[in-house]
């Protein structure tokens, strides 16, 4: 609590953990400030990615028309528009023609300051020639802003600055925000989550300002404690790992109480199989999850599974019908089943929809003639099966395949499979944890490659989490907090008794094929 005599800073640092609705909060505050924005001043929203830029623009546009003096974009595009283009030439720091490249300068065998000095020399030499690298944008902007007149003008122009995903700003970017704060003309709102600072591999910052600013008076700190994304069990679980916030479960629509499950296998195919089985096992997962994330530090973690299951990545049960249709389509179009989607050049979801149309068409008329099915297939998919094939052997073959196809489709136990059939928007996403940031899924499987990595994910000591330079602790938090209803964890190496005990203390339940056999579970 602030003492009475202490002035509360007009600048705000909003700490908002996973699933707290940061974007919604940000948009609300931006809208409020747009109302107060004089036409001669600007409001700036800094985002971390182009996708985030588009999302904020789209969501704002749903409610208001965005005025000309509102800028939403990455720090780089902001600095190019507001610093480099207007002032770089006047100060003769860049020539008339400039080219911005995303080329990254890599220098070997030099460390620390030496590395940065050398890198800056190259960046400066290139920018004098009009070639501005991605890294060079911030460096050049800071150089331009050293000029007192330019800095004062720049600061005066900007009335409001919002920074989304502040935890991902590096020191150079933070120095720009500091220039604006010290300029005293700008009100600043920084929004972020210290526990989701996972971009440190770019530039090591031991004590990121999102942490250090919390102990200072320059920013008034606000915490958003609500979690609108996850079930009560998941909110409780992820609370163990957040260093600043204990979140409150707020999405009362998620009533399921699915446990957090540790899958005991170390073999990837089996881990994935167990996970998909658990997703359809009401004892563990009340509602069958439609969107499933498979997360690991590296993409290649799941390669082994994906290669073995290409074209059929999804759970066997959910895709029995689609799989059967694909088998026949493969035979009719003379293409390998796994190559069909590519062959038709279609999105997976679109392809599945058409398969289902075909399914319902065949089911709708038990006496449908072979040539009608072929005509229908020709209207459904971009390549033709010609019923007038001159070679009668081939024609006979096609007829026979279609005949068997009809029989098989008719014989499917409709009631038993209908849930799976209409499950056409079932989605599997294999992602690195980094890529999953900002996204959410009904069910998440997070696979650690070693016990050491797993233990980092499960670290509950705040100081150890804060001093983790590798991001591993926070990567665990990001992975776990993507889940709405169901979270499973696994490890590719066997784990020790003490790790089991730790998982146990965290309320995690264990699952293996043996557990299933013991319980004699029947899957949906
Ligand atoms: N005020 C709210 N009321 C109800 N639902 C909300 C509210 N704010 C957000 N949500 C919903 O909660 C979910 C999580 O929100 P969102 O993805 O914006 O969180 P976030 O803070 O960006 O999380 P993360 O940092 O993990 O990406 C979304 O499904 C969103 O629609």
TrEMBL record:
ATP binds at residues 16-23. Gene3D superfamilies: P-loop containing nucleotide triphosphate hydrolases. Pfam families: AAA_19 (PF13245). Residues 1-231 form the UvrD-like helicase ATP-binding domain. It comes from the Bacteria. One of its GO terms (molecular function) is ATP binding. InterPro entries: DNA_helicase_UvrD/REP, P-loop_NTPase, UvrD-like_ATP-bd. Keywords: ATP-binding, Helicase, Hydrolase, Nucleotide-binding. One of its GO terms (biological process) is recombinational repair. SUPFAM superfamilies: P-loop containing nucleoside triphosphate hydrolases. This is UvrD-like helicase ATP-binding domain-containing protein.
